[in-house]
Write a structure and sequence with these properties.
Layout: H1 30-37, H2 52-55, E1 66-71, E2 80-85, E3 88-93, E4 107-110, H3 126-139, H4 142-160, H5 166-176, H6 182-194
Antiparallel strand pairs: 1-2, 2-3, 3-4
Length: 210
């Protein structure tokens, strides 16, 4: 199963097993569930919900019927933000940065009919896309988060690379990334020209060795 479709297994000798529940749940539900299981009131403001009612034999107890996740990695060209509701998986992409990101259009998949996510039906399901995008924005301002994350990445680049000079930067990137070449260097330059940097921290945190 892909992201947003991963089964969650639970086992506890206080509850009967052998049940399959198809409701969407999130990793953010794990902590509230554990807190609830030991009889403590979960802290206010948690994004997740206790799944203990499911273990006790109830269903449909989660207050919302959708889950949200984000994917941010150096293995992806840009940040991705996903929401699952019913059979639908909607993905929106961060567009802050080089012009190539503007071509990243939202995608929509019916994962019950298309579990491999090969058929993007966003063009034929405009209403579903608008609904899910509104729900997603109600949870996370993904355009602002995308910009903030990339500005943080730019700040880190500036801290460790900007003072090296062009030749040393190229040599370091070629060492760090197998196959780094002149075309990749152009992409880095386009990224630098299209992003701003978060402020550098005034005082770096001290490291303590125990």
């Amino acid at each position: 199963a892909g992201p947003g479709s991963t089964p969650r297994l639970a086992s506890w000798d206080q509850f009967a097993g052998g049940r399959l529940i198809r409701d969407h749940v999130s990793l953010l539900d794990i902590y509230p569930t554990l807190v609830d299981a030991v009889g403590v009131m979960p802290p206010a403001g948690l994004a997740g919900y206790s799944l203990l009612p499911y273990l006790a034999g109830s269903s449909g107890q989660r207050p919302v019927d959708y889950v949200v996740s984000m994917y941010m990695s150096n293995m992806a060209n840009t940040n991705a933000f996903m929401i699952r509701q019913g059979p639908w998986k909607y993905i929106a992409y961060g567009r802050y940065g080089p012009d190539t990101y503007r071509s990243y259009q939202p995608q929509l998949f019916n994962v019950e009919r298309d579990p491999e996510e090969l058929e993007d039906v966003s063009r034929s399901e405009n209403g579903i896309c608008a609904h899910l995008d509104s729900l997603l924005r109600g949870v996370v301002d993904y355009e602002s988060v995308d910009r903030e994350v990339k500005m943080e990445e730019r700040m880190l680049y500036d801290r460790y690379y900007r003072g090296l000079g062009k030749d040393k930067v190229h040599a370091q990137l070629k060492k760090d990334y197998h196959g780094f070449d002149a075309e990749d260097e152009k992409k880095v330059q386009a990224w630098l020209e299209s992003t701003e940097s978060s402020p550098q921290p005034g005082v770096l945190p001290m490291a303590f060795v125990i």
